[in-house]
Amino acid sequence: MRIAILSRNPSLYSTRRLVEAARARGHETKVLDVLRCYMNITSHAPSIHYKGEELTGFDAVIPRIGASVTFYGTAVLRQFEMMGVYPLNESVAITRARDKLRSLQLLSRKGIGLPITGFAHAPDDIADLIKMVGGAPLVIKLLEGTQGIGVVLAETQQAAESVIEAFMGLKANILVQEYIHEAKGADIRCFVIGDKVVAAMKRQAKAGEFRSNLHRGGSASLIRITPEERSTATRAARIMGLNVAGVDILRSNHGPVVMEVNSSPGLEGIEAATGKDIADQIVAFIEKHAAAGKTRTRGQG
Q1: Residue 111 lies in a domain
Q2: For binding Mg(2+) 2, which residues are annotated in this chain's numbering (predicted)?
Q3: Structural domains of the chain, count
């Protein structure tokens, strides 16, 4: 097969591992900077050009689209779908997962466990919003934030009001969530491929920090997850429509709660913590499922 990998940086660990795994299984790969792809949007012969040449003959595409280029990246991916190229994750599913509010509403509708979450627009509603999620301490999240950036723990009512007022004053969209004390600064990253959790790791925040992201200095270790956590992770990925996802779960007193469903989960931390060849499993999934025109939404989203 010929596999395109949409990635801004070919030297990133995840991109390199996917290239290695695909080549080891006898496939041809090409890493494409998604921002250098440009499209001819026409009724009968949609095409994508890259650095002056038309891209043809690809069987599958692996999107590794950063949050900052979601709009353009999913447009390029949608064009591949319109050309009949099989996407590892579809453009509609990535767009759905990248919108934190929309994804939580979809998960909520299907009964997935979530932290109590509030969303408001007017400063006059701040006091009731804080009360709604159980009061301080609470977590305030920028909707556009990634890798723990734009996430604030407000430990008192006054601090919560001040931070929320500041964000609202900047016209920033925020979520306000209950703080899960019992998680003790740890979460579980479940790596889902298809309908199966193929690996799981515990991410522990460093001392004095509540965000467990590895980019924020958190540490990763192997963990055994419960059947309920496994079911929650696979259901969350399915609801988002993602074939491959990193589902972040907290252990709360009322069962597992989903913090986020990541459509481009990194491979470095999970492969190091579990010793599993996740990249190889991703390529094996593509081999099993890739077929021309097999995209469920066919670029319609």
Answers
A1: no
A2: 260, 262
A3: 3
Annotated binding site for Mg(2+): 248, 260, 262
Written as one letter, the residue type at 151 is: V
Binding-site annotation, residues: 141, 178-179, 187, 211-213, 248, 260, 262
Average pLDDT, the chain: 90
Residue 288 lies in a domain: no
Q: What is the CATH number of the domain that holds 249?
A: 3.30.470.20
211 and 122 assigned to the same domain: no
pLDDT at 296: 60
In the annotated binding site for Mn(2+), the residues are: 248, 260, 262
User: What was the pLDDT predicted at 268?
Assistant: 93
Confidence at residue 298, expressed as pLDDT on a 0 to 100 scale: 45
Instruction: Measure CA of the first residue to CA of the last residue in the chain; give whole Å.
Output: 26
CATH number at residue 9: 3.40.50.20
Residue 273 has what pLDDT? Answer: 92
Residues 181, 187, 193, 194, Cα dihedral to 10°: 0
- Residue ranges making up the domain that contains 186: 182-283
